[in-house]
Design brief:
With 393 residues, the chain is α/β, with parallel strands linked by helices. The chain contains 11 helices and 8 strands. Keywords: Acetoin catabolism.
C-alpha cells in the first residue's frame, strides 16, 4: 500500500549557498544546491502536502537563545574585516572568515527555527532544513565548520514556545557537542549522539560516561563507535539505544540531525556506513516521531563531504521519507541531474539511489558478544544512561 503523503515544510533559500568558507574547504556549498536539484528532479517539491518555504534570517534576539551577544558581534566584525579572532574560533583553518558569514549563518539558523515553529504549531507536521545541522557551534565560539548552532536554536525555540520534552537525535559521524552543551543541565531536553569514537575523531568528546549535568542526569546520551564500524554495527547500535530512550522520555517533538559523513566514502572520518543504512535510520526516525511525538519531526542536515556522490542522495531520501513518499533504493538517478553533477563538479554522478547494501543488523537484545568492540560500546552507553530512565540493560 502506498503511504499517505505527510504535510511537510521544506525550508530552502538559494542564499544558503553563501555559507561558503572558500575554495578547497570541505564544506563546499555545492552539496546544498545539488541536493535541492535532486529533490526537484524527483518532483518531491511538487508532492501533495509539500510546501517549499524560505524563512527570514534569525535576528539577534533569536540568536541570543543560544549565543552570547558578544559572539554575534564578533562574527559581524570578522565578516567585515576578515581578521582572525581565535578567541571566538573565527578566522581559523576550520572556520575562515568570509564576507557573508553572519548573514548566511543567520539565514540557515532562521530556516531551522522556522521549521521548529512549523512543527510545533502544526497538526503533527514535519519539516526539513538540510542546510542546517551545524551542531558544533558553541555559545561563544565557532567550531568545526559551524558558526551559529541552528540545531540548538531550533530546540531552544521549541522550549520557548512551551515544549516540555524535546528529543534531539544526532547521527552525524562527529559528536553533537554544541547541542549537548547548550542543554547539558536542562531536563526538558534529551540529546542522543551516535558518532565515531573521540579517540579517533574531532571533537574528541562524546564518551559514554558523559551523561548530563546534576539537574539532568541521563539527559545526554553518547554512543561512541569504533572506527571502521559498518552498516550492521551502526544500525545495531542505533536500535539498541534510540527507540528505548524515546519511548521512556516521551518527547513532544523530535529533532534529528542527519550528517552524511558516516558514509564509507567520506574523506574526513573513518566509519563505513552505506547510503542504504543512512536511509534506514531516517525511516526509523520518521516512525519513532509518529510513535512517540505525535508526528512532530524536524529533520536537519549536517556534515558530509562526499559532496556529489553521497550527500545529495542521502538528503533527498530524507526529504522523500519526511514527505511520506520514500524513494525505492533501486530507483535510477535522473539523467538531467547527473549531467548537472558533471557540469558543476567534473565528477560522474551516481547511477542509482542505493549503494546496493541490505541495511540489515542483528538485534542487540538477542545476543551480546563481550569480545566485540561495538557491543562493548553499546553496553557502556546503556549502563551509563538506561538506569536514569528506568530501563533495563
Amino acid at each position: 500500500m502506498t503511504p499517505a503523503p505527510h504535510q511537510l515544510d521544506l525550508f530552502w533559500d538559494d542564499a544558503s549557498t553563501r555559507y561558503d568558507f572558500g575554495p578547497g574547504h570541505p564544506m563546499d556549498p555545492v552539496r546544498l544546491s545539488l541536493t535541492m536539484s535532486l529533490v526537484r528532479a524527483f518532483g518531491l517539491d511538487r508532492l501533495p502536502g509539500v510546501t517549499v518555504r524560505a524563512a527570514p534570517p534569525a535576528g539577534d534576539s533569536t540568536l541570543a537563545l543560544v549565543h552570547d551577544p558578544d559572539y554575534v558581534a564578533a562574527v559581524r566584525r570578522a565578516a567585515a574585516s576578515g581578521r582572525p579572532d581565535p578567541a571566538h574560533g573565527l578566522g581559523t583553518e576550520d572556520n575562515p572568515a568570509f564576507a557573508a558569514m553572519h548573514e548566511a549563518s543567520a539565514l540557515i539558523a532562521g530556516q531551522s527555527v522556522a521549521g521548529a515553529e512549523a512543527v510545533w504549531t502544526g497538526d503533527g507536521g514535519r519539516a526539513v532544513n538540510f542546510a542546517g545541522g551545524l551542531h558544533h557551534a558553541m555559545s561563544g565560539s565557532a567550531s568545526g565548520f559551524c558558526v551559529y548552532n541552528d540545531a540548538a536554536l531550533a530546540v531552544a525555540r521549541l522550549l520557548e514556545l512551551g515544549a516540555e520534552r524535546v528529543a534531539y537525535v544526532d547521527v552525524d559521524v562527529h559528536h553533537g557537542d554544541g547541542v549537548e552543551r547548550a542543554f547539558w543541565d536542562d531536563p526538558r531536553v534529551l540529546t542522543v549522539s551516535l558518532h565515531e569514537h573521540p579517540r579517533t575523531l574531532f571533537p574528541q568528546t562524546g564518551w559514554s560516561e558523559e551523561t548530563g549535568g546534576p539537574s539532568a542526569e541521563g539527559g545526554a546520551v553518547n554512543l561512541p563507535l569504533p572506527a571502521g564500524t559498518g552498516d550492521a554495527g551502526w544500525l545495531r547500535a542505533f536500535h539498541a539505544v534510540v527507540p528505548q530512550l524515546l519511548a521512556a522520555f516521551r518527547p513532544q517533538v523530535l529533532v534529528s540531525q542527519h550528517g552524511a559523513d558516516t558514509h564509507l566514502e567520506d574523506p574526513l572520518a573513518h566509519l563505513a556506513v552505506s547510503l542504504d543504512a543512512q536511509r534506514a535510520v531516517a525511516v526509523a526516525l520518521a516512525a519513532l516521531a509518529d510513535e512517540h511525538a505525535e508526528g512532530r519531526w524536524l529533520a536537519l542536515g549536517g556534515g558530509g563531504y562526499a559532496v556529489a556522490d553521497v550527500v545529495p542522495r542521502t538528503w533527498t531520501h530524507l526529504v522523500a521519507i519526511a514527505a511520506g513518499r520514500p524513494i525505492a533504493p533501486e530507483t535510477a538517478v535522473p539523467e538531467e541531474w547527473r549531467a548537472e553533477v558533471l557540469r558543476r563538479t567534473r565528477q560522474q554522478g551516481p547511477l542509482r539511489m542505493t549503494d546496493g547494501m541490505p541495511a540489515e543488523w542483528k538485534d542487540f537484545d538477542a545476543g551480546y558478544d563481550p569480545a566485540d568492540r561495538l557491543d562493548q560500546a553499546v553496553l557502556a552507553t546503556r549502563r551509563a544512561v538506561f538506569p536514569h530512565h528506568g530501563l533495563m540493560l
